[in-house]
């Protein structure tokens, strides 16, 4: 299915035309970057005239761009503008913080949510564990190198192979500890191992004596970032296995919060006299 929105019915009380336009936008993804009018009509079961008007309206406001040679539609600059506003809005941290706090409560570890930033992962939300600060400076805003540590490896392992090769091949990579891997071929082997088991586990690759277990966070089928637990190596005497269930549950909950609209609160019934329905006492 082209879109990860499984229920395409317009919820009661909402505008059907607006909802359909948003469904069209959500259908664009890396594996399906362009659409034609007939394809949209067939995908959603609409008349071709409806699909044409929706696509033309979105293009008229800059959310889509029409290729005059192929008459196919691509994502437009207005979507880029909203994406940049989202990155700076603080909304992601607002949505993620309750999930991170609950994961910290369950494990006692430091919890980090990171997203890619060039050849690094940037921490955008964090909760300190019971053992006290992991750094002498705030975790939020720190950049983790793409080749060192589970926080980064859990994200880059799930990129398409050709895209990852472009990032890692022919690039100098710093060695932070004696355990830091800088050989591209060995890194590629590790990425395949991470992808096969679904999580990354490292000890002392970026910081001496620090162990980290991390899983990817997806938006639909696309890797978006990583969620990781970290702490002193001695906190993980048996490895990461006893944390994996809690970590995966938190990642799934976070994915749901990022892709599923919150429930709309029900309205209080109005009184016959037109009042708000609130009691006077």
From TrEMBL:
Residues 255-281 are annotated as: Disordered. Residues 272-281 have a biased composition (Gly residues). One of its GO terms (biological process) is negative regulation of DNA-templated transcription. Residues 15-77 form the HTH iclR-type domain. InterPro entries: GAF-like_dom_sf (IPR029016), HTH_MetabolicPath_Reg (IPR050707), Tscrpt_reg_IclR_C (IPR014757), Tscrpt_reg_IclR_N (IPR005471), WH-like_DNA-bd_sf (IPR036388), WH_DNA-bd_sf (IPR036390). Coiled coil: none annotated. One of its GO terms (molecular function) is DNA-binding transcription factor activity. Keywords: DNA-binding, Transcription, Transcription regulation. This is IclR family transcriptional regulator. It comes from Streptomyces violaceusniger. The lineage of its organism: Bacteria, Bacillati, Actinomycetota, Actinomycetes, Kitasatosporales.
